[in-house]
TrEMBL record, chains A, B:
Lineage, uppermost ranks: Bacteria, Pseudomonadati, Bacteroidota, Chitinophagia, Chitinophagales
Protein's name according to its UniProt entry: Crp/Fnr family transcriptional regulator
Residue span, Cyclic nucleotide-binding domain: 18-105
Organism per entry: Chitinophaga parva
Domain of life, source organism: Bacteria
CDD domains with a match to the protein in the record: CAP_ED
């Protein structure tokens, strides 16, 4: 879902345009989260640190998606997640304070965010079903079928982390199904 | 989050007020979903049918929450979930067509739905983290600590299904932690 085009110049004054190098952090777990990010170009991963110190990837965002720790963003709280650039990434960042001011000036944007979050929440309902319903192999095949571009773009070790696999197991599945 | 009070009479003309008996279905998996539900009083469960014919509970909604299959609701599609009353439940139901007309008349409601879906999506981000991070025992203790009222209200076999436990395992955990 893209931003309303006729509001572009007004929007620009509220957003901070930024570039992140591959593997650079947009948001760090344990620090205050006061921004959300619109991905203009690139790809980011949402993750948290497991107790053993490794990163568990929970989500990705590609072009035209929003991403943040939305619980922390809503309350200016401490982030439970990190967000890291998977490749070189350009974003529009907006702080909660700027968003508040923007929505006062352009209340029509609530309609855009209503649909955007409804879509995100709907996707999370489906994802929950797949997590309960599918075996690891089925999860991988579902992912291959529904997000082929994604599977090519995201490094295999991140895809494995996202699917809850070891890299070795993912590599075995790839040999079995991608020939 | 409650509905804006000053719009109550207008809202009533768009909503269908309904009562459901315990265990009655509000929405049936496999049928077209054209409504979303605001829980006025009571409790409902969102579930899908596993291949073995048993119900897997994925979510609950209590008073002042909205629930639907939001992917199906957004597109008038076939529901991937059933919604069933856990106890006697009163709802306000609104069809997608009525919501469209209502939002034309009261566009301020987009702000309400924006916040409501942001909150729901934020909760689903946290839930995903807990599903990856916690052991079954930790999941149960987290649930007990954060949703004590809920744990008393929802029948144990549904709570077990929601947490992905067998009823026997949940009963063992209860003996261990609730004394």
């Amino acid at each position: 879902m893209s931003l309303p085009a006729n509001k572009t110049s007004l929007l620009e004054s509220f957003f901070d345009q930024r570039s992140y190098a591959k593997k650079e952090l947009l948001l760090t777990e344990g620090q205050r989260c006061f921004e959300k990010f619109f991905i203009v170009k690139g790809c980011v991963q949402l993750s948290y640190l497991r107790q053993d110190g490794t990163e568990q990837t929970l989500d990705f965002a590609l072009e035209n998606w929003w991403i943040s720790d939305f619980m922390a963003f809503a309350h200016g709280g401490i982030s439970q997640f990190s967000i890291r650039a998977v490749e070189r990434t350009e974003v529009l960042a907006i702080s909660a304070a700027h968003q508040h001011a923007l929505l006062e000036q352009v209340p029509e944007l609530h309609a855009y965010f209503h649909l955007m979050f409804q879509r995100a929440y709907a996707a999370s309902q489906m994802r929950l079903r797949y997590l309960y319903e599918f075996s690891k192999e089925e999860l991988y095949l579902h992912f291959l079928r529904h997000f082929p571009a994604f599977t090519q773009r995201v490094p295999q070790y991140l895809l494995a982390s996202f699917l809850g696999f070891t890299p070795v197991y993912l590599s075995e599945l790839r040999k079995k199904f991608v020939s």
